[in-house]
Every structure is written in C-alpha cells, then in structure tokens.
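ok here's PEP-CTERM sorting domain-containing protein, seq below lol
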Amino acid sequence: MRTTLSCVALAAAFASGAAFADTLPSASFDTFSLQYVSDTMSPSGGAPAFSVLSSSTTQTQLSLDSMASLLQAADHGGSAQTFSDALVLGLQAGAGYRITGYSLSGTLSGEMEVGAAPAGATVTTAGSAQNSVTFDMQLWAPGATMTDGGRMWHQVQLNADQPFDFHEQNWQGRDAFELRLTTSVMAAAQATAWSDPSCSACSTASFAQMNVLNPVLTVYTEAVAVPEPATWAMLAGGLMLVGGTVRRRRV
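and the structure came out like this:
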C-alpha cells in the first residue's frame, strides 16, 4: 500500500516536482502521472521485470532489475556466450497528464584480455577476445501500430565501463505507448597457443565479458493545461452571447 501523504505535503510535492518513493509492488504501479498497463519478458528471469525507483509530476524511473541479471556474458576461452532479453512494457499517462518522452540509461561493463605467450616462445595459434552488446527499441501505440521506426545501437570491442543513455523526448504528447526492448550481449575468447623448448603444445587463456549494469527506464510526463476559472467564465459568457444572438434571429 502506498504511504499516505497529507494534503499539505502532497501539494508541496506537486509544486516542487520533487520525487517520492513509490511503495507499490514491483509487478505493477499507479503513480500520479503514469500508470502500468502490462508487461512481458522473455526469458522471465524468475523475478519482476522492473521496480519503481521514483516518481514525480515530471518523470517516473523504473529499474529493469531482471534484464540486468540476465545480460551477463563471459568466456574464459571455453565457448562463446550470447544472452538475449526481450521486454514489452505497456504504459499510459495518468489522469490529467501526457507522456512526452523516455530514456534508457545504465552502464556497459566490457573486458577483453588476450592470453600472452612467454618471451621467446613461438605462437602457433593467435588468441583473441571480443564482446558486443545490441539494443533494439521500438515504440508501439495501442492497437499494435508501430509509431516509431525504432532505435538500434550496437557496441563492440569494449574494454572499460561506459555509461549509455538513449532518449526520445519533446514529443507532442501521448496518452499511452508500448515499449518493445530487445537486448543481447556476447562474449567470446580463444586461447593463445604457443610452444618453446620446454613445452611443445602449451596455451595461455584469453578472457572476454560484457555486462549491462543498472539499466533504468525514465518516462517523462507533463500536466495537461487546464483552463483557469476566468477562462471558463469567458467561454460560458461567449456561449450565452451566441445563444442570445441565435434566438433573436429566429424571432
């Protein structure tokens, strides 16, 4: 159950746009500006697809926990590893709000090390190490219509920690959308084979890995403009004036 806020505290949170913790179960959520519709993930990973990190009037942040646990590939020279994850997440704007964009951020952690032969040895088979990660993001409107041509990003041969941030903002405003995100990681390594007078067929292991760490989906929202009381009064007065004119013409 969500923590109850006093009217004064709630009004202050809305005025400042400050984030507050959402304590709903991680399998679904219903914040003031954004609502959960549905989600599927393959493979399931045995855990909820996401958890709510924070929510405010301008953005909601979701931690894609299970995706991170599945996207970890490492090879010590035995056999290449490839892991993929497909997440479909349906979202809709809360009452009085519209969705204006999204971003996917986190950190890629890649490592590659090619086994080295001892000094003076003869290399018989060169070792290798390689890794890669691919993100494929598509936006679909309710009714299975693609509204975005998709965003694909591919990174290879990464030997460091590197932050990433893919974003699509400044939309005219949407009531709902479905994010389809497919991510895959690969790591492959081959040992360096060598020989010298003391060893005719020796090798030194190589290593490669690629991990996706702390992926966070941020959905941006904004309040739909509501006419001020004075505007409503002017509109009502205009309608009354038009109505009076029509009656006089009929008479």
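fwiw The radius of gyration is 27 Å. kinda neat tbh
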